[in-house]
Amino acid sequence: MVYFYSGLTVLAVTVLLVVPRFRKRAKDAGHSRHSIHSNLSPKHTVKEPETEARVLLQTNKLAALDPANEPGIFQILDFKPGMYTIPYSAIQADDNGPIDVDSSTIFFVDAQYLEQFCDWFHKTGNEVSYDVCEIGNRLKNFNIEFSTMSDFILSEGLNTCFPGEGRYTLDLVKLRLV
What we know:
By secondary structure, the protein is α+β, with helices and mostly antiparallel strands. It has helices spanning 2-28, 35-38, 114-127, 132-145, and strands at 52-57, 61-65, 72-75, 82-87, 91-93, 99-101, 105-110, 151-154, 166-170, 176-177.
């Protein structure tokens, strides 16, 4: 019992005397209370890059779809052929939006390849029991066959702009030609 109380006494003295000095030295060195534990001050933290899809557009029409439903077709104004990035934040919930999602995935393809993409998707989906991760892994086969670049975005979960099932639209202002 004596050893237990002695251990508590040493711990209490350490917490009361050493920790405040450590915090004071850290504060004097320009670190916040939170950065003491992370070895990085807030100005040195790294921001995660935003999830995005890349699609090669040779026409001014972008198809965005969950292949179980009708696609949303978007016309790109001031169009220039090339590779476009579609950031996750461009997906916006909209009860009347043209993208109807039953799964947690939106595929993006140049609309001129929409019919071929849907045929490929369902053929591949049947082969892999519609495992969206495996379909995503095989998407390069479609891209090679049609000399294009199509891509997809998976939902990042609740409390995001694309939580999964629902209707959506795209904020076309956020698309970037790269």
